[in-house]
Every structure is written in C-alpha cells, then in structure tokens.
Amino acid sequence: MAEIPKDKLRDIYRKMVVTRAFDMKLTEIVAGGIPLTHHSALGQEATPITACALLRPDDYMMPYHRGWAWAIGKGMEPKRILAELMGKKTGSMGGHGGAHLADLEHRVMGRSGMQAAHIPIAAGLGLSIRMRKEDQVVVCMFGDGPPNIGEWHEGVNLAAIWHAPVIFLCESNGYAETTRRDHTMLIERISERAAAYGIPGVTIDGNDIFAIYETVRTAVDRARRGEGPTLIEAITYRWLGHHARDTEHYGGYRSKEEVDGWKEKCPIKRAREKLIGMGVLTPAEIEAMEREAKAIAEEAERYAKESPYPTREELPKLFGFKISLFPVKGRKASGAWWRAVAMVEE
Fold first, then answer.
1. Is residue 191 located within the same domain as residue 294?
2. Residue 251 three-state SS
3. Does residue 286 lie in a domain region?
4. Which end of the chain is more exposed for a tag (fewer CB within 10 A), N or C?
C-alpha cells in the first residue's frame, strides 16, 4: 500500500468534519420548519470525501441523492449549496436547481431526481472522454437501490463495452429507503455483479479512509490508462432516516441496537484516532478544525437565509421559458415550494 501524503490526509479529515457539521445544520434547519430536500449522510462521510481527494479539478462527479460530501469533496462551498437548496439566486445554479443542483465549474453534474437515472449518463460522460482522447475520469455514486433498476444494468454494461473511464462507487448502507438489501438480492455483495460485465468488482470498508483511498486510487489509475470501469462497494451506514420525515428508522425497520452499533464505527472517530496515532494531526489541530467546521455551517445558514430569491424576470434567463410562479397554498414562497408553469417561447 502506497503512503498517502500527510497534507492529503489532513484535507480528507477536515472535509469530513465540515461535511458532518453541514449535514447537522441542514437537519436542524429542516426540523425548524424550512422545507428543504435533505437526505442525511451522517455516518457516511468517509467514502465520498476520500474518493474526491483522488480526483483532479477536471474530473467529473456524477452524484446521487444521499448527503453532500461529494459536493464538498469536489470543492463546492457549503453556503452556495444551502443557498441553492433554498432556491436563492446566490446558489450554485442561481436558485433554479434546488436539490437537483449541479456545479459545472467543479465538474459536479446534475443530481438526478430518479434512482439510477444517472448511471447511463455517467457512461455517456465516460464515452465523451474517450472520444476526446482525454484522461479524465468519472466517479458515479449510488446507494443500495439502483443496482436493482434497469438503468443501472444498462449504464454499467455500456460503460464496460465502451471501456469508459467510470468508477461506479456504491455507498452500501444496507437499505434502499426502508427495504433491507438482503430482501431484494440473493447475492452476498453488490460488487459480485461486476463479473457479469467483465469488469473488476471489489468490496471495502467504507468507513476506513485508507482502504477507500487505496481502492479508488487503483480504479482511477486503471480508468486513466483506458482500461475501463470498476465497481466498488463501500460498506457503510447512515445514522438517520432516509429523509427528514422518516420516523421509523430507529427502532422501526431498523433496530436501535443496529443503529447504535454502527455509530460506534464512526468514520470520523476512526480517522481521528488513526491520524493522531500517526502524528498527522494533533488534538489541538482537530479542535481547530471542528471550530472551523461549525463556523462554516453557521455562515452557510446566514448566507442562504439573507440571500435574495431570483426575480420573475431572472428565471427565464436560464431556461429560455416564460415562467409563472405560484406559492403552494399554506407555504412560504421559497424555492423549494414554488410551482412553476412553463410555456416554451415561440
């Protein structure tokens, strides 16, 4: 196993801490009554942050619905993420994308509204890289549900036959919303499906930054050499429900013992203990990172709440449509609750 540079390890840890603080802030905001689409990823910070640490600025991230570590890992600012979620004009898409945000400056492609719909898009991105004779890669993330959807099979198969430079990275937390994975698959591991497409498949500990780094690095190097995609299954666990309204995640469809047991496997705690032991970080440096992360989350909330909404006149500039906006009855007219009726201009 090759040595990971110390500055890289510090950056990975810092972004994991920022991600957790931001996730907790979003959970707090939703609990306070502001309507946001937020699927918490508390407990799953290690895999996306570490994977992004291996990407260049011109590499692509094809994200999915869970969490925001892939965005923070790729360089997006939490305050602009939150502004976009609130439909504000200071967001990464000017308030037009909401939860389905993108940031082309950081090569973060649009967040799909349908499970597995982004898998063929990732294959297409990989094909475009090959056609341009470049050495960029695409990291495509998903959870336990998409591998049982037709678009997933189509996309992975296309990527395989095209030798597309795509790393298919599954954050396998054991559930597709509220359904246990072993209720929908007879195979032991999602990575076993790679054999059907003739590509490498590997299962790793998704809470171990060192295992993630080494495995993703191998896959990225392979993709850059033109040898095609890899399927990586990172075993991890979300501490909270599928979304903010999921009240059955603790003692319902998941036992309290199961959830509490996984909290003991906290990826940030594991990384902290390891990095202190290696002399990469000191307790004082870690405390400073935690203070910084909290300040970033607080600033994101202030920035987003104080930012203006796009005007009626500004909305058509992005779409080329005439837009009429009507706040949903009983709700404040926020970006998350506008109903847009679009008529294509002749």
1. yes
2. coil
3. yes
4. C
In a domain, 152, yes or no: yes
Per-residue pLDDT tens digits of the chain, which is 346 residues long: 568 999 999 999 999 999 999 999 999 999 999 988 999 999 999 999 999 999 999 999 999 999 999 999 999 999 999 999 999 999 999 998 888 989 999 999 988 888 999 999 999 999 999 999 999 999 999 999 999 999 999 999 999 999 999 999 999 999 999 999 999 999 999 999 999 999 999 999 999 999 999 999 999 999 999 999 999 999 999 999 999 889 899 999 999 999 999 999 999 999 999 999 999 999 999 999 999 999 999 999 999 999 999 987 776 555 454 444 444 444 444 443 333 333 333 3
Same domain, 237 and 335: no
Using CA atoms, how far residue 178 sits from 46, 246, 254, 318, in Å, is: 22, 9, 8, 36
pTM for the model: 0.90
Same domain, 204 and 336: no
Total structural domains within the chain: 2
Q: Do 134 and 248 have their domain in common?
A: yes
How many helices (H) and strands (E) in the chain?
11, 9
Residue 1 falls inside a structural domain: no
Question: If we measure between CA atoms, which residue out of 317, 182, 178, 315 comes closest to residue 251?
Answer: 178
Residues 199 and 251 in one domain: yes
- Domain extent at residue 317: 311-346
